[in-house]
Design a protein that fits this description.
3 domains; globular; alpha/beta; FAD/NAD(P)-binding domain; five-stranded parallel beta sheet; 18 helices
């Protein structure tokens, strides 16, 4: 980088994202985090150490050249920063908002060893938002791909990044989505107050302009089978990125009472079917108090939605605050918005009235014992510590498993506990069928799903390139 070096200020305080006014936040679906101003972005870029080896790049599952894109911001080249990110990711607006940067790039930031790490995620978001403001008409058109046909099942983050990588290599890519809107968990699982739908839709539209074809309302395993995709539709490889849409249940008495939801149903109906609107065909109605059981991002999302729907919102978690698995930013926003946290407590049974409606929850206090397989200390019930909380709505946000539709329709596909088994390249037990994301991992993160999709796209390219060469040799 031969340009004059602007002044760096690594010891300056980390810039904080401006937030929507708190009173407005709890009554609207509007985005909470408003994004850096230009001045904030440039100030944050000056905090970067521009390390020679840049460990943040290796820590990023997509290996975005973080050092270079932040440098472009440092010298005021914000469009250049966007172009650097776009070499590896078409989703800076999405990832800048929902990736758990604190677990990946920011955890590797050397500045973070003594001070607050550089706000890499917020800078990525700024680059995306700045470019969007400068180019509201969208970016260029790409030449139409002419290569082999590849089918991607599901339109979540794993499939979307695979589509990006494959279409750039001239593959004719078709994405099949079971629902009526695209985005997978990005659309049905993440609220618009965290990820506005226009941001998601515009970044998906970029893939369409690149030549990716999308088909909605197609359930692979029912509407069409994998064999039919190969033998009747002419696809030469298939990627399965169907996610984890089968929620885990609490397994306690009272779970069938009216007013009990899984987080999957609760969030899908609100995020995808606009159930927050009283005029919706399927409105979600919450009572005076909603108790959300769980400590991940889905639990935070459900509790924050319940607050916006007018309910006194509680999170019941069997471990302590330090063990919460949600993004730190989402935990802090939930606390600011008035969500009450009841730590070291677990549900025993859900109580109801004669009409079958929820009236409360019996709980028990917990204490942390020895570490389990995950390395976290296991919660242990304290005998005689039972207590009751009044509530009218319960949301179970304790995890999910892969939707079994495709697996049941394809019994020759090797699975383990519902999850599709793959090798190190992403290949399944079926020839030219690959998989990745939550259908392989179970409930995980957006960025790790993208990592899987990228690995599978590379494996598909290698396999089809070898196949083409073999066929040419036979024909020759």
């Amino acid at each position: 980088m031969g340009e004059p070096q602007p002044k760096r200020t690594p010891k300056a305080p980390r810039q904080q994202l401006p937030l929507l006014d708190l009173e407005r936040r709890v009554t609207t679906k509007e985005e909470v985090a408003l994004g850096f101003t230009k001045e904030q972005a440039e100030a944050e870029a000056r905090r970067c150490l521009y390390c020679k080896d840049a460990p943040c790049v290796n820590a990023c599952p997509l290996h975005i050249d973080i050092k270079t894109f932040i440098y472009r911001m440092l010298v005021g080249d914000h469009e250049g920063a966007f172009e650097v990110i776009s070499e590896q990711s078409p989703f800076p607006g999405v990832c800048g908002r929902v990736c758990q940067h604190e677990l990946f790039c920011e955890s590797a930031c050397l500045l973070g060893k003594k001070l607050d790490p550089v706000a890499i995620g917020s800078l990525e978001r700024f680059a995306a938002d700045y470019n969007r403001a400068m180019h509201p008409e969208g970016q260029k058109e790409w030449p139409k791909p002419t290569g082999p046909k590849v089918a991607l099942i599901g339109s979540g983050p794993a499939s979307l990044i695979a589509a990006f990588d494959l279409v750039r290599k001239n593959y004719r890519v078709t994405v099949f989505e079971a629902l009526h809107e695209l985005g997978g968990v990005l659309a049905y699982g993440i609220p618009p107050f965290r990820l506005p739908r226009d941001i998601l839709n515009e970044e998906i539209e970029k893939l369409r302009r690149m030549g990716v074809e999308f088909q909605t309302d197609v359930i692979v395993g029912k509407t069409v089978t994998i064999d039919e995709l190969f033998h009747e539709e002419g696809f030469e490889a298939i990627f399965v990125g169907t996610g984890a849409g089968l929620p885990w249940l609490l397994g306690i008495p009272g779970e069938n009472l009216i007013g009990v939801y899984t987080a999957n149903e609760f969030l899908t109906r609100i995020n995808l079917m606009r159930a927050y609107d009283p005029a919706s065909d399927t409105p979600v109605r919450v009572g005076k108090r909603t108790i959300v059981v769980g400590g991940g991002n889905s639990a935070m999302d459900a509790a924050r939605w319940a607050k916006r729907l007018g309910s006194d919102s509680w999170i019941l978690y069997r471990r302590g605050r330090a063990e919460l698995k949600a993004r730190l930013e989402e935990i802090e926003h939930a606390e600011e918005e008035g969500v009450h946290f009841e730590f070291l407590a677990a549900p025993v049974r859900i109580l109801g009235n004669e009409e079958g409606y929820v009236t409360g929850m019996e709980c028990i206090r917990m204490e942390l014992g020895e570490p389990d397989e995950s390395g976290r200390r296991s919660p242990v019930p304290i005998p005689g510590s039972e207590f009751t909380l009044e509530c009218e709505t319960v949301v179970a946000a304790i995890g999910q498993a892969p939707n079994p539709t495709l697996q049941r329709a394809t019994p020759q596909l090797l699975t383990r506990k519902g999850k599709i088994v793959i090798d190190e390249s992403g290949k399944t037990s079926l020839e030219r069928v690959y998989a990745g994301g939550d259908v392989v991992r179970g409930g995980s993160t957006v960025i790790l799903a993208m990592q899987d999709g990228r690995a599978a796209a590379e494996a598909i390219h290698n396999a089809l390139s070898s196949r083409t060469a073999d066929l040419a040799e036979v024909e020759g």
